Amino acid sequence: MQPHPIPDTAALEAELVGSVKAGFPSPAEDVREKLDLVKLLVRHSASTFFFRIDGVSMVDADMDEGDIIIVDRAVEPYNDCKAVCFIDGEYTVKRVEITADGAVLLPCNAHNTQFRPIPVGPDNDFLIWGVVTYVIKKA
Question: What band does 93 get if pLDDT is binned at 50, 70 and 90?
Answer without folding.
Answer: very high
